[in-house]
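can u do me a favor
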């Protein structure tokens, strides 16, 4: 029975380390996907004349992750609710959809801010804003990739070693 308990503690520690490592990987993937979606958005806004809700709907079809759900729900709410501002819709969906995306709170707020600007600015301003945002996302993605390389393996090892430590300590 004691050995089974030790084994469960080691497994729990390993799972905790894997979870921390997976969070880093999830953030990196979300940043890369968001950068790609912003490239599509830039193309849609520069060369198309569709309203923002249709553009968001097409963006949602390009992604199956939390970001796709976010853009789909924003599009649906824009079509349904005429009395609510774009900023309110975006903030509501940020709380609902983006909390599982792996993006930090600051990155989520930046996305909302960028989308709000898209609803108010002319094409040139939108294009410049999206280029700057894509550059920033690229930098954030590179930083997240470096952090993931450095810390993912460490978190997994620490989880295993922590579980092993507690198992030995309790034995």
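np, heres the sequence
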């Amino acid at each position: 029975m004691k050995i089974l308990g030790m084994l469960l503690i080691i497994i729990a520690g390993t799972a905790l380390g894997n979870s921390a490592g997976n969070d880093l990987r999830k953030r990196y993937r979300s940043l890369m996907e968001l950068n790609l979606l912003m490239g599509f958005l830039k193309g849609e806004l520069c060369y198309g004349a569709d309203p923002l809700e249709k553009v968001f709907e097409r963006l949602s079809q390009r992604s199956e992750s939390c970001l796709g759900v976010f853009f789909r729900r924003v599009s649906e709410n824009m079509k349904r609710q005429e009395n609510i501002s774009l900023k309110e819709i975006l903030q509501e969906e940020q709380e609902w959809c983006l909390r599982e995306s792996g993006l930090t709170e600051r990155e989520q707020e930046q996305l909302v801010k960028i989308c709000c600007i898209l609803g108010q600015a002319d094409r040139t301003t939108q294009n410049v804003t999206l280029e700057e945002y894509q550059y920033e996302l690229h930098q954030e993605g590179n930083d997240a990739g470096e952090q993931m390389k450095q810390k993912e393996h460490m978190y997994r090892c620490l989880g295993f070693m922590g579980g092993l430590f507690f198992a030995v300590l309790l034995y």
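Residues 53 and 78 are 6 Å apart (CA to CA). hope that helps!!
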